[in-house]
Amino acid sequence: MPAFDYSAMDNQGRKQKGVLEADSARLARQLLRDRQLIPLAVSEAQQRESSGVFGGHRIGASDLSLATRQLATLLQAGLPIEECLSAVASQTERHSVRRVLMAVRTQVREGHTLAGSLQQFPRAFPTLYCATVSAGEKSGHLDGVLNRLADYTEAQLEFRQKIQLAMLYPVLLLVLSLAIVIGLMVYVVPDIIDTIADAGQQLPLLTEILVSISNFLSTWGGWLALGIAAAALFIRALLQRPHIRLGWHKKLLSLPFTRKFSRGGNAARYISTLAILTNSGIPLVESMGIAKSVVKNDAFAEALEQADKSVTEGIALNRALGQSGYFPPMMIHLIASGEASGELPALLQKAADAQEKELQRIVATMVGILEPATLVIMGGFILAIVLAVMLPILNLNQIVG
Fold it and tell me: Which of 135, 220, 164, 211 is nearest to 384 (CA)?
């Protein structure tokens, strides 16, 4: 029975949206009338999702994790998959998530596998997710695989949130400090300097420099902001070109200030993904091909392609990854131990966890340096402004005295 996305109006004139199941759009409208609703628009959810310009709706990491956990719990209780999807869809508060889940349920009821149904909505369910679900279906342990997927999604979400929260305060501090300095230069300093200049006094060098900067910002500040925005858009457009983006990504992997973070972040994301795939029973070579899609750096992904070829030719995983030069030695040693002991998935996860902790330590160190550095630099700017304003005032007092 297909799912229909509807928009209707109740007796009080309030607009309602939702998803319901019916044999046809005509019957869906009748069901709405039976609920004392006036149908405004009714369309099949599956068709809307698959034919959308951008391939359907996205599902956020937190929503996907929660839905996955609920599905696993219901499957463990022995419920059929279509009933599990219906129950999870009815519990979610997000209309877009409900629509996608009901459309997936329609596919399942028509005889498609769960993984095949999920693949119809690539913006909602990544390749990693679909491949892992497919492995769970083939092995007969779908509930356990879904639980591991939920753990993985939650861990990735928690890691991103920790990084974002750590960077939030210094970024806000920098933005506010710049706003204060620019505000003083544009709106406060000119009035004070004009008052001093009216007295006919020769301005000190520091004050003249401040006046020049203030006049420039007052006259050209808007154009400067537009120029910066245009430059940012131009650089962004350049980075859309594969060869330019590849060169930039290679720089990120080699520059002293970005090397550790770029290498560590991509390595942790790749190894963590590889761990859940291999733990779900997907062959190593296939897992490497899927896990490569989560890497955000083109140069790193290029090195992984070479590692994939090496493993296909029979080279051990630790040697293939070690040849790239992008993976930390400790991670390579843990992978080698996993291959030697036959516990590769478990050691892969330990390697990913260790690298994520190292990244969090690096971020904490960067934030610890950035906060006082921002305060010192902005404090220096404000001190220069105060001195530039106070020096001619003190000189004027001396002349009057």
Answer: 211
pTM, two decimal places? 0.66
- Domains in the chain with CATH codes: 1-125 (1.20.81.30), 127-401 (1.20.81.30)
Q: DSSP secondary structure string, 172-196?
A: HHHHHHHHHHHHIIIIIHHHHHHHH
List Cα–Cα distances, 276 to 129, 146, 302, 320, 343, in angstroms: 10, 11, 22, 20, 13
Contact call for residues 55 and 37 (beta carbons, < 8 A) = no
pLDDT of residue 168: 81
b/e for 164-194, b at 16 or more Cβ within 10 A?
eebeeebeeebeebeeebeebbeeebbebbe
Q: What is the pLDDT of residues 351-381, one digit of tens each?
A: 888 888 888 788 778 777 877 887 888 788 8
Instruction: Measure the CA–CA gap between 335 and 348, rounded to whole angstroms.
Output: 6
21: which residues sit within 8 A by CB, 6+ positions away? 1, 2, 3, 4, 102, 106
Q: How many CB atoms lie under 10 A from the CB of residue 275?
A: 25
CA-based end-to-end distance of the chain = 94
In what order do the strands lie in the sheet containing 38-44? 15-21, 3-9, 38-44
Q: Is 38 helix (H, G, I), strand (E, B) or coil?
A: strand
Residues 6+ apart with CB under 8 A from 209: 388
Backbone Cα Rg of the chain: 30
